[in-house]
Specification:
The chain has helices spanning about 1-15, 25-45, 65-75, 75-90, 100-120, 140-165, 170-175, 180-200, 215-240, 250-275, 280, 285-310, 310-315, 315-340, 355-375, 390-395, and strands at about 245, 400. The chain is an all-alpha fold. Helix 4 (about 75-90) packs across helix 8, helix 5 runs antiparallel to helix 15 (about 355-375) and helix 6 runs antiparallel to helix 8. The protein is globular, with a radius of gyration of 22 Å.
Length: about 400
């Protein structure tokens, strides 16, 4: 039996992109963690939230909502941002990054939707907004926008499948509608990314460092920075793991785009504090202050300065560290806003159950494995060498330096 399994595994490994391993140490770890998330989901559906989480009536939102509603949805913003850069503004230089960005967006929205469904006390009711309309609810608008944008993302990505199996007519049809799809997707993303931040305007009693009238705008802009940072970070990691040409000529320019987005974000956050005076009110030298410094100072201001330095953003190591800090900073912002800043209104304390961690990181690992499968069997990186000279293509894989 084991020899048969080994033969089947070897056969799978030999098909598709030979540089993308399906069952290496990281692939196996992703499979194991993904199965762990499925196990936790099954336990939740069988026994409810109580036995598998530390959530309560006093702490109804915890680790899951911080990642499902906050981090995953924000990480997906690279999809609509890259689509806008290439299809709307016409910067063809960035086209090699469009397909991976759209796939990352689709996977992040998918695991976000799965996480939200499991996080609900009665998971089956996630479908209620389809026919139970509440026009006065921000979450109603968010729910519909997420459903529609997830559909748009898979339609945008579908050409990879059509190209792989040779369905040229469907591929041409999809290409004919790509601009309307991109425009519709951008509109939906602007609506729900900003609405998630605006949701917290109804709770002025939260810690003031994470509350202000521009929260909707801040969520949208920070999501754009996070989405592009995730795309850049994993492009660098995967180029080494999968022996692909590292397009520093593209990524360094994208790093500069990220820096300008962060500058807009920090300026808007400064205006927000100037309007409310919440910075002076909230900085008291306590743990909230430490978290704010880690989020804004280390996770946003520092990497923004680094990315404005040409020597840093044209270096693989410098770009990796800068985007890694941004990922940490924006994810911490979502955790602070959705969970930690709500503590003044809560009784008792909350720390996630071990199964909450298993489910959270299992979802991420599962999404990474699906990305691996797509890179293995679909033309996900078919545009990767676009814009290079024949000499550069022959030398691949290598690092294409920044201009």
């Amino acid at each position: 039996m084991f020899s048969a399994i080994k033969g089947w595994v070897n056969k799978l490994e030999q098909t598709g992109n030979p540089n993308v391993p399906l069952f290496g140490k990281w692939g196996l770890l992703q499979i194991i963690l993904g199965l762990g998330a499925l196990t936790v989901a099954g336990l939740k559906l069988a026994y409810g939230l109580g036995p598998i989480t530390n959530l309560s009536d006093n702490w109804p939102w915890g680790l899951w909502v911080a990642f499902d509603v906050g981090a995953y949805i924000a990480s997906a913003a690279g999809g609509f941002t890259m689509a806008a850069i290439v299809y709307i503004f016409g910067f063809e230089k960035f086209r090699p990054l469009v397909r991976p960005a759209i796939l990352i967006g689709a996977l992040c929205y998918t695991i976000g939707a799965i996480g939200i469904m499991i996080d609900l006390a009665r998971s089956i009711r996630i479908v209620h907004p389809i026919w139970m309309w509440n026009h006065e609810s921000i979450m109603f608008e968010v729910g519909w926008c997420v459903m529609m944008y997830l559909t748009v993302l898979y339609l945008e990505f579908s050409n990879n499948i059509f190209e792989r199996i040779g369905w040229k007519k469907l591929g041409n049809l999809q290409h004919a509608f790509i601009i309307p799809l991109v425009i519709f997707g951008i509109m939906l993303s602007f609506l729900h990314q900003s609405s998630l931040g605006a949701l917290f305007l109804i709770n002025p009693a939260q810690q003031p460092l994470w509350h202000g009238p521009l929260m909707g705008h801040l969520f949208l802009v920070s999501a754009m920075a996070l989405g592009l940072s995730v795309l850049t970070y994993f492009s660098i990691i995967l180029s080494r793991s999968w022996k692909m040409t590292l397009r520093m000529d593209i990524l360094s320019k994208l790093g500069l785009v990220i820096a300008w987005i962060l500058l807009v974000y920090l300026a808007a956050r400064g205006v927000d504090y100037a309007i409310t005076g919440n910075l002076a009110t909230g900085l008291n030298g306590d743990w909230y202050t430490v978290l704010w410094v880690a989020e804004v100072g280390i996770g946003m201001l520092l990497p923004m300065i680094l990315l404005f330095i040409k020597k840093v953003r044209t270096s693989r190591t410098g770009l990796l560290w800068a985007t890694g800090l941004i990922i940490m900073g924006v994810v911490l912002n979502r955790i602070n806003t959705l969970v930690i800043s709500q503590a003044p209104n809560r009784e008792g304390s909350y720390f996630p159950h071990i199964l909450e961690f298993v489910f959270t990181f299992g979802l991420i690992a599962g999404a990474m494995y699906v990305f691996r499968l797509c890179a293995k069997y679909l033309p996900l990186y078919s545009d990767h060498m676009k814009g290079l000279t024949p000499e550069q293509v022959k030398k691949a894989p290598e690092v294409i330096p920044a201009n």
